[in-house]
Amino acid sequence: MTLPSTRVRKVRRLRFSIGLFVVLFAAGGAGFYWWKHAQPQLPAGISWGNGRLEADEIDIDTKFPGRIAELGVDIGDMVTAGQLVGRMDTRDLQESLKKAQAQVKQAQHAIEEASANLEQQRTQQTLAAQELDRTQALLKNGWATKELFDQRKQALDGVNAGLSAATNRVAETERALEASEHDVGLYTVNINDNDLVAPRDGRIQYRIANIGEVLPAGGKVFTMLDISYVYMDIYLPAPESGKIKVGTEGRILLDAYPNSPIPAKVSFIASQAQFTPKTVETKSERDKLMFRIRVRIDPDRSRVHAASVRSGLPGVAYLRADPSVAWPKDLQGPP
Length: 335
Hints:
By secondary structure, the chain is an alpha+beta fold. About 40% of the residues lie in helices and about 25% in strands.
């Protein structure tokens, strides 16, 4: 019995679909098999995890409220530790400094006057003491009256009081000079603190404010990357992270430089497990609880290759828990 033409077409389509599915499935399986065996096989004792290369971000902030007067760098510029990158308007502090310096001169002049007065009081004390001694000798021989002796004694007492006051006046003017000098030092420090300097070697990542803007105390002007602290955070499950220790040797292989493994060491291991971030892929397709491990590149190596440091570059970090295991050839890297 002959099947209707429409039914024949349906059967042919079904057979074609099944055949196509089988071919695609076989091709996919073969491709996966090739990819699996084409990848370098890691020996036992070496763990890996993917992440992104990061560098510590440092904010360059204002210490005092004020207006930005100068900016010496821009986004992407390399800076060195201590380099001046900007300056705040310090005209008000400059005037206060001049006032304090004038007060220092005034205090120095006051000390000179007080010292001269003290010397005068000492001279008068010497004279009054000598007159009292002579009067006392004359009184014993009956050549001076008791009244004259009392007058000499009162004069000496007055001179002693004046000497004490003059001494205190010198000490007071010296303290005033010291306070004025402290004011000069304070204004000088505040003026210097209005210079914005780079605390570390690195690259300017962001410029947040511009010349002429008024910022509060702590206002951000730049954000820079500290190229001496470059690292990658990866996440490993407990069975693997338990074998890793601080100081464990590692290699970082960036997607941008697949043939240049970077020597590194473990600098931090989280004490508590956490859920794996969504951006992290794991061997078991997102193990629920993982331990964060920080793999840091040697600071000297980071400085040498400062121009190549880019925050956010994806890659893979390999950790050798067993020092007796040799690194695969493609992960040996430079000495």
